[in-house]
Amino acid sequence: MSTVETAIVAEPAGAEEPRGRRRRSVALIVGTSIVGTYILAAVLAPWLAPYDPLAQDVPNALAAPSGSHPLGTDHLGRDVLSRLLHGSRVDLLLGMAAAGAAGVLGTVLGLVAGYAGRSVDVVVTRVMDVVQALPGIVLLLVLLLVLGPGAGSIIAALALTGWVAYARLVRASVLVVRDQDFTSAARLAGLGHPRVLFRHVLPNVWIQGVIYMTSDIVIIIGAIAALGYLGIGIQAPTPEWGQMIYDGQAFLASHWWLSAAPGLAIVVLGLGLALVSDALTDRARR
Amino acid sequence: MSSNDVPPIELRGLRKEFRLPGLRGRARAARTQVAVAGVDLTVSRGEIVGLVGESGCGKSTLARCVVGMYSPTAGEVLLDGHPVGTRRSSADRRRVQMVFQDPASALNPALRVRDMLAELLRVHRLVPSSDIAGRCAELLESVGLDAGFLDVFPHALSGGQRQRVNIARALALEPDVVVADEVVSALDVSVQAAVLNVLLDLRARLGLSILFISHNLAVVRQVCDRVAVMYAGEIVELADVDTLFAEPRHDYTRRLLAAIPRISGDHAQSVPSGQSVPSGQSVPSGQSVPSG
Q: Which of A156, B53, B94, B180 is the most buried (most CB within 10 A)?
């Protein structure tokens, strides 16, 4: 950081934008275009996909990539490209919904814990410790057994295990903001606690949660894939990337693209979100 | 407005102790830090009372008790002759406002100047909602900023401009009393004068009472009517500004005045070294109260 700032000072007046900053805005543009492409693909999947993702064509199973099937077919003869496109709907939607739910839950609890002081803080912090002490995947399994399978339960279970990170981040930021004079000034002006909390504290801390959320979405998609792998995720015929990787595993030696395509889809999405996250972190620091 | 003989703010025997953490039981009582040790002080309408003293003497703690950030251990704060309890109503809070030392930390970075001012006007219903925009511009004008600054975020303001906005924020609530805690110490000397003039002007126009906390005696001499000298949590001398500077009575005041740096002057006037402060009071040991 410091080197970048010296560079800014060293630039003559009226010179073009400092190089460091331009590189970062490039990162933001590339990141948002990657993520935007995924979202577009998810929205337009029914029109973009050349085949029905569920249509089986067993005689033509495990076909190599060709003109009619750009990514080949899987062991049931389903078009891999179509499944990949439709899978983005499931994975993106679940990933964003679960990260969003965890983010909202964690932000609210972190706000309250950081602002309310002592007794409330101790309770929330202890709960966070307990949730974090349990291995995440075990907690997920238990929750899914209790809630039963289905998209709703998966979102709920991921939110209930994932909120802790948001709560910790937000709480730490609140502790800093709470001691700033503008918070005291707001209280001295006779404003009530809810107003001070949501209008004066929240706008200065929520960005932390959003930054984490960009990377959390990928982690959550990974978790959804892991759940699919364990057989308690999204159920069988529905196209989902984790399930696709699992299905392709048996044919890895001869048909590596069956697993590689959805794997690559997750990796590139992760890269895009990471770029967005970095650019946002930078914005927040300025 | 109430009658002129009732001071807008009065402190009676105000005392604030802090318990030092880490001990229980009998030892705890011994580890109490007295920050303000029984202070009586009155600020009349339209008066600027200076409060001076070195770091840690309890100035800022006193200020925080006055505005209601701390609740006093003993004694009372009276607004217009009525004692306010430890939990102030929103209306009571409104009447005593504070301008903070660090102009950067006192403005919410996420709010435009307009939103910040408008919120206060709306919450306290100080003007009809149709007049809010006009009133915001008027407030900025009264601290010497034009209405163009309404749509600006704090990070785009200079230190002096921020402090003006802070004063405008305090004024928005139409307070009777403003506590100014080292308001110019973070500013350039050239900007200091301008901000002080804003305060003097407001006192003249609005009859504002100001408790002016500072360790800069030159500034205090310029703006204050009376000066209270605080030492170890007590007010050791209270006098008209001219009297105090001309013939300081308490020894500590003399030492404080002698400590004003002079550009040319004989060095014999500087503080006698190695001399402890003689005073009749029981001075608590370990002066380490945070002064904000």
A: B180
